[in-house]
Amino acid sequence: xxxxxxNIQTEEVKRAAEPEYKIPEDATDNSRPxxxxxxxTRESAEETNTELLQSxxxxxxxxxxxxxxxxxxKEE
Length: 76
Fold this sequence. Notes:
Layout: H1 5-17, H2 42-75
């Protein structure tokens, strides 16, 4: 069958009317366990922040020591 202009326009209208995202047929199927996100509590976030700050502090101390040693070597 050869498509004429009217058929092409009808097909374009049908495509435009279709949603881009289709809900899966099994979307209401509760037999599968739901995927859950990790719950982040304020306490665990504070612990993580503390660990990160300690790590940064340690690296800064190492950089300062290296800079001091380099400066001392230049002055000799």
